[in-house]
Design brief:
By secondary structure, this protein is α/β, with parallel strands linked by helices. The chain contains eleven helices and twelve strands. A six-stranded mixed sheet has the order 8-9-7-10-11-12, with helices on both faces.
Length: 315
C-alpha cells in the first residue's frame, strides 16, 4: 500500500527523500485502510512516493539507524494535546502499543494534576506512575534506538520554548517538532480582543524565538507543525466558550503567520499536517486529531527518517 505525492525533495547523499514541505491541495481516493493522496505544490512538478510502513519495518529502520550511527533517534515534540497525540502516534507506530486515551478509549484519561491533591490519592497516582495529562512525558526504547519526549507547551512567552530549543541544541536532538497557536486564539477570545491585534502579538512573540531556532545545529531538523483543521459545527456541539467560538479561518491565519515568521530560518513547515486533517475530517470532537490523521502523520515522519536507511529495512 502506498501514498503517492508530488512534493518538494531534498538530496541526502545520493538519495532523493521526501521532505515535509507539502504545500499543495491534496486529493484522496479511498483505498483499503488508508487513502491514496496526491499533493501538487504550485512551485514544483516532482513526484515522490510515501510508502506505508508496518511496525516491524519501522523498528527495523530504527535498529539499522542505531547500528549505523551508534546513537538512538531523539525526537522532541512540544505543544498542546494534539501534539501529545502525535507523540503517542509515533510510539504506536514503533511499538504497536496505543496509549492515546483520546482515540483509544480502553486507556483511561489520567486527568489533570489536582490543584489540592488528597495525599492518599496523590500517593496512589505516584505508585501507579500516572502522569497528569498536561505534564511532560518521555519514553526511552534502547532495544530499537528511539528516545521520544513530549513537552506540554501552551505559551510562547513563559520561557519554556526557549529552554526546549536550548536543550535540543545540547542534547543532539534529531527532530524537534513544535506547534503553537490555539491557546493564543483562546486567550484572545476570552479577553475579547480584536483578531488582528492578537495575531500581531502572536507574530511578535514567535519572532522572539528566531535567534534560538537559527542557532540550532544543522543535525537537528526543526519542524513547525501548523494547527490542524477544525470542524466548527462539531466543536460548537461538543464545547462551550471559548473553544466553541473557534473558527477555522483563525487557524489558517495563525498558520500563515507562523509560516511567514519562520521563512527566514531553515525550519520545515509541515503543511501536509493541516491538509491531511482537513481532508480526512476524522476528528471525533471537532478539535483533536482522528486516528487516520495521526497515523498519516506518523508515516510521514518515519518515512522521512527511514529514507536515509535505504530500502533494506523493508525486507
Amino acid at each position: 500500500m502506498h501514498w503517492t505525492f508530488c512534493a518538494s525533495l531534498i538530496i541526502i547523499g545520493s538519495t532523493c527523500t521526501l521532505v515535509l514541505l507539502f504545500t499543495g491541495l491534496p486529493q484522496f481516493e479511498e483505498n483499503d485502510r488508508f487513502s491514496v493522496g496526491i499533493f501538487q505544490p504550485p512551485s514544483t512538478s516532482c513526484q515522490a512516493e510515501l510508502a506505508y510502513l508496518t511496525t516491524e519495518q519501522t523498528r527495523r529502520c530504527l535498529q539499522l539507524r542505531l547500528n549505523r550511527t551508534g546513537r538512538p533517534l531523539k525526537i522532541v515534540i512540544a505543544g498542546d494535546s494534539r501534539m501529545r497525540q502525535l507523540y503517542f502516534s509515533l510510539l504506536y507506530q514503533a511499538t504497536g502499543l496505543d496509549e492515546d486515551w483520546t482515540t483509544n478509549h480502553s486507556v483511561p484519561d489520567p486527568g489533570p494534576a489536582p490543584t489540592n491533591p488528597n495525599r492518599g490519592l496523590a500517593a496512589q497516582r505516584e505508585n501507579q506512575k500516572i502522569i497528569p495529562k498536561h505534564n511532560d512525558r518521555s519514553k526511552i526504547l534502547p532495544e530499537i534506538g528511539l528516545e521520544a519526549k513530549f513537552h506540554w507547551l501552551v505559551a510562547l512567552t513563559d520561557g519554556k520554548l526557549r529552554s526546549i530549543v536550548k536543550d535540543a541544541t545540547s542534547s543532539s536532538t534529531d527532530l524537534l517538532l513544535v506547534s503553537h497557536g490555539l491557546w493564543s486564539i483562546w486567550t484572545c477570545i476570552k479577553q475579547k480582543k480584536s483578531d488582528s491585534d492578537c495575531l500581531k502579538q502572536y507574530q511578535k512573540d514567535l519572532k522572539g524565538h528566531i535567534p534560538a531556532i537559527t542557532a540550532l545545529p544543522t543535525s537537528t531538523s526543526f519542524i513547525w507543525v501548523p494547527q490542524n483543521a477544525i470542524l466548527e459545527p462539531l466543536i460548537r456541539r461538543k464545547f462551550t466558550d471559548p473553544i466553541g467560538k473557534l473558527k477555522d479561518r483563525n487557524i489558517v491565519a495563525y498558520n500563515n503567520a507562523a509560516k511567514n515568521v519562520l521563512s527566514t530560518t531553515r525550519s520545515i513547515f509541515w503543511g501536509s499536517h493541516y491538509e491531511a486533517s482537513r481532508v480526512f475530517r476524522d476528528t471525533y470532537d471537532g478539535l483533536h486529531l482522528g486516528r487516520r490523521t495521526k497515523e498519516f502523520d506518523a508515516q510521514v515522519l518515519f518515512d522521512y527518517v527511514c529514507a536515509k536507511q535505504g530500502d533494506s529495512f523493508r525486507n
